[in-house]
Here is the input.
Amino acid sequence: MTINDLYIRTQDDLMDGVRELGILPFFVNSLRGFSIDEHVDPGIWFSGEEGPWEWKGPVINELGCAYGKFFEKKAAYISPEWFCHFANYRRDGYDFDARFDDGLVFRGDKLMYDLIDANAPVLSKRLKFLGNYRKGGNKGFDTIINRLQAQGYVIISDFRYMIDKNGNEYGWGVAEYSTPEHFMGSAFTDNVYSCSPQESYERLFEHLREILPGAEETAIKRFLG
Here is the structure.
């Protein structure tokens, strides 16, 4: 399957896309045509019926895939197999403790990671409370959580909805954070460092060339970061 074969009308279409493509951004990005946004039936966007926004949590949990702001500060799905290579490349082969021991971690990142690691899965509201991210407290929640996702240390493991007095869900889904180690277990920990970060990068690059016919190599390299 290439991105040109993708057309999303149902949740099953979306899951098939994530399974077969392995990497699937949600929003328009620097690689033209490489997003759910550009391949979804317009009739299901904010139509009053469930669509890609509401399917995020079910897709994550059905496939056991990673979801988060991994590329260009924008959200994407990555299948378990390809997330191992993504994390290995972005982590540069370091687990978080080793990165910290080598002085490569900001203090705020260490606080955030430790809170998520100890409480996973944890809703963003709870995480902000635990870390004292409020007026007069710690700052930079969004910057830190996005950086940890981009580095492959933190993922979004679900979206939870508020429940009204009649038991109905409402509002936007609240992100639930975890580490891939917690969420994916041995499927991740047994494979994430199985090759060099450079080899993982090369595999990611070749995979994107395969599923994105016509994409320029320089554009793919820029997208991978």
Observations:
- The chain has a mean pLDDT of 94.
- Residues 197-211 form the longest helix (15 residues).
